[in-house]
Amino acid sequence: MKRSRRWKEAVEQVDRLREYQLDESLTLVKDFASKTKFDETVELTVNLGVDPRKADQMLRGTLALPHGTGKTVRVLVLTKGEKQAEAREAGADHVGFEEYIEKIEGGWFDFDVCIATPDAMRDVGKLGRVLGPRGLMPNPKTGTVTFDVGQAVEEVKAGRIDFRVDRYGIIHIGVGKASFEVDKLRENVQEALRTLTRLRPASVKGTYVKKITVSSTMSPGVKVDRAAALAELK
Fold it and tell me: Which pLDDT value is given to residue 2?
């Protein structure tokens, strides 16, 4: 892969063998991102000691970051009747039913989160083949299949995010923007780590959190001192 001059310069500032304190790693990432013309997303990457091939270790869930993600989230609500008004009042960007199902079948995906009521899932279910691979399929486990659409929309707009371990046992979570202060990024990272720790599958043996890395959209990853970061959660 061809890397930019800026990326190569950033790599030279990082000791690839060293694990940095959390604040120090976030400061480095913010400095790398300050040299671009847009507000980069700061991402937390956690390598877990799980086997995603086992059903009880396919880790997924939701997370409400204390300072949000800094991203404007476009929400689609698929529902009928009076729940449509509730969704609109809560701030949903798109609300409807049959017309939006038809649009999605036609290739429309101008939304980041899809919420549906349980009574709509019979029809929404047929969208699984197109929404599933994009991580947009409503799911009760992530709170996106619910009759309380107003609360669900408000939580998503406030910064609630869904996460899921990939096939390599790694979780990627956007924890804010490079413009955030280090304190806010740290608190978001800590909340994410608390959530992952709380969701540790009972069947996992040995080291659960194996490696922690932070990076921005266009920067190299910076390793975080795993032991110190987890100790700060207690």
Answer: 61
Residue with tokens 């101008």: 110
Give the pLDDT score at 7: 61
Do 152 and 107 belong to one domain?
yes
Decide: 74 and 113 in contact? Cβ < 8 Å: yes
> DSSP of 82-122, one letter per residue?
HHHHHHHHHT-SEEESHHHHHHHHTT----SEEEE-GGGHH
HEC string for 113-147? EEEECHHHHHHHHHHHHHHHHHCCCCCHHHCCECC
Mean pLDDT in runs of 10 for the chain (234 residues)?
Answer: 64 81 94 85 96 92 88 93 96 96 95 95 94 91 92 89 91 94 97 95 94 90 95 88
* pLDDT of 94: 97
Full domain range(s) for residue 81: 75-158
Of the residues 158, 191, 217, which one is the last residue of a structural domain? Answer: 158
Residues 44 and 98 in one domain: no
Residue 10 · residue 32 · CB < 8 Å: yes
At residue 6, the pLDDT reads: 65
Q: Give the list of residues 6+ apart from residue 11 with CB closer than 8 angstroms, or none.
A: 3, 220
Task: Copy the structure tokens of residue 81.
Answer: 């009747």
Which of 158, 190, 223 is a domain's end point?
Answer: 158
Q: Name residue 118's amino acid.
A: P
Pairing of strands 222-224, 209-216: antiparallel
Whole-angstrom distance, CA of residue 49 vs CA of residue 47: 7
4 domain-assigned: no
